[in-house]
């Protein structure tokens, strides 16, 4: 399998922004497109941001063993399709996964050589401000995401690499450094 880089952390911590900026500086790094049962947000396209599946389709994929990892998060399902990783592996392209902590734990068990990186907010209040400020979820969903975030923040110690996304430039620099070292010296 090609090198798998897992980037995890609570919703709203800036994983997507960090990965976008990481890929600008490490262009050989591909991005795995996750599957989800949540509805597309404005501007999102199926197969680009996510593979958008119905609940029944997702459950069928689980039954067929099609996921390398899958989890429930804030009332929705998310997962990484095995075919997505196999396609990347066949080309030798290193691949980043932006996934939830539950999924990161599954990847750690399934792919022991994966590089797992936890992105943390500078504070819980900063995380709340980011979730509210992005305006994509109603108050109830934000509260559910914050409740899950509490549990996820407690899991940061499970990861060898933790990057605090306080100042974006610093977080990107740290992430690029960790990923470049990981690609240069993979753990097998």
UniProtKB/TrEMBL annotation:
The lineage of its organism: unclassified sequences, metagenomes, ecological metagenomes. Its EC number is 2.7.4.8. Residues 2-180 form the Guanylate kinase-like domain. One of its GO terms (molecular function) is GMP kinase activity. It holds the Pfam family Guanylate_kin. SMART domains: GuKc. This is guanylate kinase. One of its GO terms (cellular component) is cytosol. SUPFAM superfamilies: P-loop containing nucleoside triphosphate hydrolases. Transmembrane segments: none annotated. It is an enzyme of class 2 (transferase). It comes from freshwater metagenome. Keywords: ATP-binding, Kinase, Nucleotide-binding, Transferase. Belongs to the guanylate kinase family.
């Amino acid at each position: 399998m090609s090198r798998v880089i897992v980037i995890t952390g609570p919703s709203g911590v800036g994983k997507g922004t960090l990965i976008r900026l990481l890929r600008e500086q490490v262009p050989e790094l591909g991005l795995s497109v996750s599957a989800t049962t949540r509805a597309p947000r404005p501007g999102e396209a199926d197969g680009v941001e996510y593979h958008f599946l119905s609940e029944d389709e997702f459950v069928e994929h689980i039954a067929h063993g099609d996921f390398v990892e899958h989890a429930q998060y804030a009332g929705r399902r998310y997962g990484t399709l095995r075919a997505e990783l196999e396609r990347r592996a066949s080309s030798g392209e290193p691949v980043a996964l932006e996934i939830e902590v539950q999924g990161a734990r599954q990847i750690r068990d399934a792919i022991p050589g994966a590089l797992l990186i936890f992105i943390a907010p500078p504070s819980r209040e900063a995380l709340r401000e980011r979730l509210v400020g992005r305006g994509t979820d109603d108050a109830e969903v934000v509260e559910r995401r914050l409740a899950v975030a509490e549990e996820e923040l407690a899991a940061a110690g499970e990861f060898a690499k933790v990057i605090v996304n306080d100042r974006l430039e610093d977080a990107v620099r740290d992430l690029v450094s960790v990923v470049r070292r990981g690609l240069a010296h993979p753990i097998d």
